Amino acid sequence: MSERVKHLRNAGIVVLLAVLVWTVPGGSTAGSGVSNLLSLLLLAGLAFFAFRLYMEHRTTLLDLPDDQRMILYGSVTLALVTLLATSRMWNAAPAWILVWFALLGTAAYGLLRVVRRWRAY
User: Fold this and answer.
1) Are 113 and 76 spatial neighbours (Cβ–Cβ below 8 Å)?
2) Model confidence, pTM
């Protein structure tokens, strides 16, 4: 079987599943459940990736001066909290969108500052 036929078959299966979810009673609930499960798996994978990065580079992190390590951890925390609050901030008043960009910019600046200091050694 050629690659083109395989791709068309796979696309047809996806379309068939989408039509089933759309037409079957309770299909949207099942679709939401599958979507939530896939999101959970993605977040678990990202958490595992972050854990592995930390374990591989913890000596480098512990070699940083205390003030630089505090800026690094604070910037990562600020970025994560800001990303978690994205939907609330974007659905609120338009001024909150500017605050969202300012918070992410501050987090990026903190990370950049730590990386520049680390490379200066």
Assistant:
1) no
2) 0.69
